[in-house]
Write a structure and sequence with these properties.
It is built from 2 helices and no strands. With 58 residues, it is mainly alpha-helical.
């Protein structure tokens, strides 16, 4: 299940980055802001998954 969460985080980060760059390229501040928010959401999810792995018993 942790791998699924990590994959979801990477997907959110990638989609957010694309939206952010595309929004900046075409001058669409709304799209750029949505991309930044989605990328940040992916960063938070990745941090959560990393913390879960750190406390998981080996």
């Amino acid at each position: 299940m942790a791998a699924d969460g990590k994959a979801q985080a990477k997907g959110e980060q990638a989609k957010g980055k694309v939206k952010k760059v595309l929004g900046g390229a075409v001058g669409n501040e709304s799209l750029k802001a949505k991309g930044q928010a989605e990328e940040s959401k992916g960063d938070l999810r990745a941090a959560k998954e990393k913390a879960k792995d750190a406390i998981k018993p080996k």
